[in-house]
Structures are given as C-alpha cells and as structure tokens.
Design goal:
With 203 residues, this protein is an alpha+beta fold. The protein is 34% helix and 20% strand. Mean pLDDT is 88; it is low at 1-31.
Length: 203
C-alpha cells in the first residue's frame, strides 16, 4: 500500500494520472467502513435505550445489533420466577452446538434499575456462572423500563413490598432486532419449538 500511495503522489505532482487497482480499493480501510443500513421499522432497537451492564459499561441497546439474541426482563432480588428465566436461557444453550452458542447472545434487562446496580447484576452473574461472552445482565434508566417492557410485550407491576408481579418470557430477536419467537415455558426443560426457532435464526 505504501508503494501505491507513493505512485499516486508522484503522478499527481507530475500532473498525470494513475490507475488504482480494484483490489487495492477493496482492501483499503475506508472501503470497509460501510454505513449500516437503517433499522427495520419493526425492530425493537428503534427504541433508543441505554443499558448499563454487570461490568459497569453503558452502551445503546441497539449496539447488540448484528447477533441473534435471547432477551427477557428480570430483577436480581426475585426469588422465584427470575431464577427460572436464567434456567431457561441455560437450557436453550445446552441444546446448541458450541458454534451455535458462540453466535447467540442472551440479554436480561432489569425492571428494577434502582436496586440493580452493576454490583448487584455482577453478583447474580457470578453466582449463576453466566459466561460474560454470551450473557449480559443490564439495567436501563428508570424512565425507560416501561418502554422496554412494551416492545417485548412483558407486563409488570411494582408491589408495595418492593417486589414485582410480572410475566415471564424469553424473546428471540434476529440480528436486526426483529422478534422471531417467544416462549413462556420457564425452567430447565426447554420449549422444543422455541429451540428450533433459535437454531433457524443462527443458520
């Protein structure tokens, strides 16, 4: 590339022209920075939400674009159904090959950001032995919780004792954030139809 750049510079100084090989253009860094296509209208990533994960990193939810995802909502102090949501994600993973698991992300979004700090999220991730290469536990801003729940069709209600009543679901998103499938079957025995939908999304 240096010799090519020198040839171009010499030709310009001499007032001439030089032919640039197509292979050199294709290999140039600038040519590889193609702008992303607009999000589909039915993508959940149309929702402009920032998430802070168990490592304390804050990024846009839409930054997860490009990789199929299993998404759900939970809160760390939940003692019953939320642990089963994690069990469900693990059960789906167990049905996949190593290569398939590497291509699937799992994101659990808190409905209790006031208490679900990065430290609280990290504690659950450690206790449940969740691989950070695949699992993200994250909290949105308090004012964004209901919007996230709305696009995922998850209903919740805060109770006086600080707990929540909520529906439980794993939602499968394609790489563009479109909902492909969902299951409300929670626990260590995965929904076979949902697993097949996950495999299909990973092909």
């Amino acid at each position: 590339m240096k010799s090519l750049a020198l040839s171009i510079a010499m030709a310009v100084l001499a007032g001439g022209t030089v032919a640039i090989p197509a292979s050199a253009i294709a290999a140039s860094p600038a040519s590889q920075k193609m702008p992303k296509m607009p999000l589909p209208g039915n993508s959940v990533y149309q929702l402009d939400v920032q998430l802070t994960d168990q490592a304390g990193r804050t990024s846009a939810w839409r930054d997860r674009r490009g990789q199929p995802q299993l998404v759900s909502m939970f809160y760390t102090s939940c003692q019953y159904i939320c642990p089963l949501i994690i069990d469900s994600g693990k059960a789906v993973q167990k049905q996949l090959s190593d290569a398939e698991r590497a291509r699937l992300g799992i994101t659990l979004i808190s409905m209790d950001p006031a208490r679900d700090t990065p430290q609280a999220l990290a504690k659950v991730a450690t206790q449940r032995k969740l691989d950070p290469a695949q699992w993200t536990l994250a909290s949105p801003a308090a004012e964004d919780v209901r919007s996230v729940a709305g696009v995922l069709n998850i209903r919740y209600r805060a109770l006086a004792d600080g707990e929540f009543n909520h529906t439980s679901a794993l939602v499968l998103l394609d790489g563009e954030g479109r909902i492909l499938a969902r299951t409300e079957k929670m626990g260590s025995k995965p929904d076979p139809e949902f697993v097949e939908a996950v495999r299909k999304a990973l092909r």
